[in-house]
Amino acid sequence: MAKKPIVGFYGITGCAGCLLSVIFNEDEIVDIIKAVDIVAFPFIKSDNSKGPMDICFIEGTVVSLDDEKIVKELRERSKVVVALGTCACEGNIPAIRNYTDDKKLSKWLYKKNPQNQDTRTPKPIHEIIQVEYRLPGCPPDRDEVKRFIKDLLLNKTFRNVRSAVCVECKLNKNGCLLDNNLVCLGPITSGGCNAICPTHGLKCYGCRGLADDANFDEYFELLKSKKIKPTEVRKVMDTFMARAVDEKLKGTKWEKYH
Ligand code: SF4
Ligand code: SF4
Ligand code: SF4
To answer: Which of helix, strand or coil describes residue 48?
Structure first.
């Protein structure tokens, strides 16, 4: 991009963790502010405009009519839209509402103001508007966000990591947690986080969403060979990728294990 790009950061229904992940250390944020013109960023600016802009980062899942209106408006005012984080890319945690009884939700959360309850199905933003780039993760990996911004500034095409977390795990020369009969979702999860969890002895919970070539048949069979029940695996999957896994397993023999 020849001139300083105009950039905005926005959040719909999420936890603000993705936006926080963009605030790097002081030196880096100063460099970024020098390189781009930020028109909106809730944690940095008090006067946030809605563009027009070159690049629009959106955090969160579309769970309400208000969210839908916001993303449509931002789309109209942006040349490039980036889904920031797994809520924006796949629905993630807010989409757990898809598995909750609306009546119970009403009783727990909307007792005093039932008119505020919006029962539409939570959706990732690409199901509402066109999205040019996705930066998954809960929250996204800071180094990947930096690489993305640098690539855009250098007019280079950003490419997501396509391989599963296991590839980076093996490159880090880690032992495999599956050998200890732990449910690690590395084989079916998109890489790009440098396998940070297994590298520190923690199982991968799939926070970056499903890998493009996730092979569920092989994965479930492998875990079954280790005496791990598919229902147990689905419970772990439900943390970050319930909606995506549900769609993928519809009509397969694994659908019933939920
Ligand atoms: S992806 Fe994770 S960190 Fe980002 S808004 Fe959603 S829950 Fe928060
Ligand atoms: S520990 Fe997890 S991420 Fe690492 S190789 Fe084993 S299954 Fe894959
Ligand atoms: S290892 Fe798994 S849970 Fe951990 S950051 Fe990477 S994708 Fe997320």
So the answer is: coil
